[in-house]
Amino acid sequence: MKVLMLTLQNDPPNIDSGADDENQYKNYGKTLRKMINQCLKKDPQERPTAKELLKHDFFTKKAKDKAYILKTLVSDSGPAVNPQKVRRVPGSSGRLHKTEDGTWEWSDDDMDLESPEGRAAQSERTPRIEERQALAKDIKRQLSRDAAGISTEPEELLDDKSSLTITSNDNPDKLSPISKEQKVHNSTDEELHLVLRLRNEQKELHDIKFDFTIGKDTSESVSRELVEAGLVDGQDLVIMAANLAKVIEKREKQLIFRLNSGCAPNEAPCDKSLLGFAQLTLLD
Q: What span, in angstroms and rounded, lies between the C-alpha atoms of 156 and 149?
């Protein structure tokens, strides 16, 4: 209420209200200033319409063409555009990246991904075209390694009595035997219900329930949504997408895999307590 009262009681803004310097707009003439003041009237009824603006003296007598407007408002009299610091986002190099929505985004490899600024930028940035292509290649490469049975994980991390699969981003484990009942279903528009269990930044276990529609969703898109929502660390995007694809393809009832995050340098990863590990469960 106080804000509304102050807005109603104070004088309307003018061309100099938002100026960084008192002489920033001094070259603007009276005709232009008068037109801007009319547009900033508090009462909407007192503001000129679009048709009235086109008949204003500034446009009819002075700004008869586009060149004059550009020269007056941008080149000569316009305010100087001071270089501003661009918000840096994590990237592979300090350069511009084209995003999926057609815009361009600047990245800087000097940013610390573990800093608050780095985490915020990681969750807010728009997916890049070259990044999505690289992600798809990484997932295919990791799935092919898993299928070949490559394993270099310490043996103590594997449970012989368990049918769970433990994988690593750099050194994927060999897959445990899949029961005969687990078959691959190729029906389209089939909706699967999954639960992702992992520890948050406070080391607390929590479950994330989400759906996956066959023929509509992809493991990359769903994993990216989890990262952008702040539910999964950005370091685990590739490993999350690869293991999600594995669960969907082979209908694994439960899958435990190694994460790149969630484990401090002085802590030992543990698949039992899900310290440095995550668990994917496919619900019936």
A: 18
Full-model pTM: 0.39
DSSP label at 199?
Answer: E
Other Cβ atoms closer than 10 A to 19: 13
Each as own residue / partner, the long-range contacts of residues 122-126 (CB below 8 Å, 24 or more positions apart, any chain) are 122/89, 122/90, 122/227, 122/234, 123/227, 123/228, 123/229, 123/230, 123/234, 124/89, 124/228, 125/89, 125/90, 125/99, 126/99, 126/100, 126/101
Q: Which segments of the chain belong to CATH 1.10.510.10?
A: 2-76
Interhelix angle 237-250/129-148, nearest 10 degrees: 50
For 274: left if phi > 0, alpha if psi spans -120 to 50, otherwise beta; the answer is: left
Q: Which CATH number fits domain 130-282: 3.30.300.30, 1.10.10.10, 2.60.200.30, 3.10.20.90?
A: 3.10.20.90
Distance separating alpha carbons of residues 242 and 167, to the nearest angstrom? 10
pLDDT digits (tens, 9 = 90+) for 37-71: 888 888 888 888 888 888 887 777 766 667 777 77
pLDDT in tens, 176-213: 333 333 444 445 568 899 999 999 888 889 899 999 99
Phi/psi at 3 (nearest 5 deg)? -65, -40
